[in-house]
Amino acid sequence: MENQDKHRLMEDEQLWGEARALAGSIEAIRRARGKKNPRDVDFGTPEWKDTCMAFARDMRWALGVGDDDLTEVPRPDDA
Length: 79
Prior knowledge:
The structure is a single chain. The chain has helices at residues 2-32, 46-63. It is mainly alpha-helical. Helix 1 packs across helix 2 (46-63).
């Protein structure tokens, strides 16, 4: 059991690292295009909410998820 927990922890750390790398790439691309990132605007403002939505759309694009699938994205392990 302890070995399974350690393996799961390593998988979680790898996934976390990949997610951070993807988010960093999206931030850099948005910045290069002259777009704002969520950390560039005041938290909780309407501009922040709009920026978060635009950032999420860019993340979906990077993951290959189209705008027609906005309601739910199935997890790979649920298929």
